[in-house]
Amino acid sequence: MGDSRVIPLMVPGGESDDLSEVTNPWDGSAIAVVETGGAQVVERALANAAAAFADRDHWLPTPDRLDILRRVADMMAVEAEELALLAAREGGKPLVDSRIEVARAIDGVRNCVEAMRSEGGREVPMNFNAASSGRLAFTTREPIGVVIALSAFNHPVNLIVHQVAPAVATGCPVIVKPAESTPLSCMRFVEMLRAAGLPDAWCQAFVASSHDHTATLVSDERIRFMSFIGSARVGWMLRSRLPPGARCALEHGGSAPVIVGPDADLDDMTPRLLKAGYYHAGQVCVSVQRVLAHESVAREVAERLAKSAEQLIVDDPADAETDVGPLIRPGEVDRVERWVREAVDGGAECVTGGKRLNERCYAPTVLLDPPAGSKVRTEEVFGPVVGVIPWRDLDEAIAIANELPFAFQASVFTRDLELMNRCFRRLRASAVMVNEHTAFRVDWMPFAGLAVSGLGVGGIPNTMRDMQVEKMMVLRSDELRG
Q: Is residue 316 over pLDDT 70?
């Protein structure tokens, strides 16, 4: 089901310098061809966006932005199945999960509309001393300026919505560079924005023909905000290249820990860990990876999880019956295979899986007691591998959970109030889920990586605030003395 179309650059006046083939990670078949952009496209996109923002008289009025977003949400709802299939084909996430992703994305666009109507400025208290007497002070919010959004492959619809829709909502021109492997969902979303009435210069998209062009985009003095989702190595490097005064939000990976108490409800817990461990073949920044289970239940936890993992269907992501699809590229299968072999050679017990199924898929794997220092314990696997690590002392478990430079979401399964609270207070994480898996998220809640795992706070309302500046007016009048 290939697409013979060439997807053009979405940069007015930009001239493509090459073509890039988009392939299906399941079988390597060609899906489409996209034009890529180099230095001329980067400059054209920046010039378009900067000129749009500089023309204050032609900023998009709030009612117009509201209407555009409402229309886009309606368009997405009509095309939901096509969007889900497109995302499954280009990114490899099973159709059942891609449908959920699209539903979340639609809700995210609508969440922007809700936030536009509920988020605003604030009053700054005055009349508390002689200096503030007779003054009224309040703030409003204005768009920060040109936004660049650099996105990742693993949620090709929803991540783009999280980075682009808040820019539209706040009135910022946005230049979006999707992942090279999954640009089609992004391009379709931008097409919808334009069809809904957004002028072309206010949202531009292109695939860069080299990483050097991305670095040029990031370092340009015309940008005011960068949203980056991807690897920590690249994210922190790009942040170092931002021009003075530019802000950023970084969302990187993690190695999510789960602490399982001796009293945990294993019947309730197992399907939750199963979903969060093998969702999108583990290619999620908050996937369950390290399950720290009390020694009295550790083997049972591993065996229950393994038994359930063996029932998962690993197949074509476009098939509605598939539970787990391929990794994004064959090289990732090679890497996961090496890491699992290292753990087993070091003494881990492979309870299930531990093997490649073909060039592009790796079997859902459960390892019991992977050794300290092994990559499956110290790095983000980003593959369908879950390690179960026994513990005897709770503080020991917390120390293991906190030993890595990553810190994102964590969870604890227990009915013990004291154990729950000790974990919540002491786990190094931006969020701790209780009797829920680490990948739980609704898109209006704060979502943040700490330490190496990121900078800033995501979630639609938080992203909108990041893309705005707060401007204060102070009004003096003798009638205001209180």
A: yes
